[in-house]
Amino acid sequence: MSITLTSLHYIYLIFILIIIAAMVRKKDITLICIVGIFLLGLIGTGSIYKSTMGVFNSFVYATKELMPTIFIISIITAMSNVLIAAGINEELISPFKPIIKNYWIAYWVIGIVMMILSWFFWPSPAVALIGALFLPIAKKAGLPAIGVAISMNLFGHGIALSSDYIIQAAPKLTADAAGIEVASVISASVPLTITMGLVTTAAAFYLLRKDIKNGKLTVDYNGEEEIAAEKAPVLIPSSKARKFLGVLTLGLFAVDIFIMYIAKLQGGDATALIGGTAVFILSLISVISYKKESLEKITSDLIKGLQFGFKIFGVVIPIAAFFYLGDSAFTEIFGKILPSGSHGIVNDLGVALANSVPLNSVVASGTLTAVGAITGLDGSGFSGISLVGSIANLFSTALGGGVETLTALGQIAGIWVGGGTIIPWAVIPVAAICGVDAFELAKRNIKPVVIGLVVTTIVAMFLI
């Protein structure tokens, strides 16, 4: 099979290279994507006004594609804020207090709880939900604050965010860019996520344990002050009521998971079920907590949630708009101007690559990991994973398969670095709530994450 490459294909490829180069230099790529969209439209249509319209229409297209994701993040954040204000978050964590008897149990329990909550609430809201409560418990058990931060960061912003099995924001972005189903990315990511998670968290714990034994890390625990912090005033004074609502919250999400499994709900349907449940929980707890003021408070919390959602994904929209043009979005926005027989710019480049450049699983896996890590250097983690999806599509065409594994690998690398555990987008909030230096946290994460990426890449080579 052969395809005729046009100037549109070469412009798209050049801009991908420019974007990667900009990310390496830690520069923002929004303007580059806007210029790229405009030039693709100008070359394709020969019209300045049509290419100008195309920039706006591509933003609209990307926003429509991302809107379910933006809304679910916003609603989950709004619900999390109400849970914290009501004191229900404390009840959700309280059963773990008797279990945490030493620092190694603290490390793994905090991490696992953070991972589970992050799958439902996303890591940033989960940090607020559990950080303040687990920190004094962990310190009392002998785990330094930096250890708590490492555990929360690796399990939450690492494992949970890079896999994103419940909300499915990350696999949605990469799957769309790669032109495959969300379920395919999720399925392919399971062995890679397990490998990355186990290797990274184990390596981090080994290094942490070594420093604790050598006396390089000590615990600064002020019992009275931290116990007082645990007893801060909450909107629902009754412990029984908080426990009931906490169990109800967990129960409703457990029912969602059961329904997803029975009804085989994935992607947008799964997101809608979780989102609708979160709205219900938000409304119920707001009415109980705020009573007469609940009508205004529900609106206020939803607005705060939306502000958070658009703040996180605002940078993604122009970038995603450019990468969506690599597939069917180009024809929808600029019309049928690609050559006859074209299956989209990225697919065409993949066919050309297959006919001219020898590729193997080793080269492809190593490249996707490197590109994923590079895309994470901008600090968002999400802004570049559309790129890894496009490159995975291109490489898989040359290899004759493996798009799911390559897409999942690039997604994992991009989010672990930028979403993330190395770049301050995620490191700063965790560091702040644990009272540690953000640069120290990032420094301690680097070695375990690099080890994890190397091992995960090797595993991917055998899976392609």
From TrEMBL:
Q: Mind listing the UniProt keywords for this protein, alphabetically?
A: Membrane, Transmembrane, Transmembrane helix
Q: Does the keyword Transmembrane helix apply?
A: yes
List membrane-spanning regions. 6-24, 31-49, 69-88, 100-122, 182-208, 244-264, 270-290, 302-325, 413-434, 446-463
Q: Which domain of life is it from?
A: Bacteria
Keyword Lyase belongs to the record: no
Q: What is this protein called?
A: Transporter
The organism named in the record is: Clostridium tanneri
List the taxonomic lineage: Bacteria, Bacillati, Bacillota, Clostridia, Eubacteriales
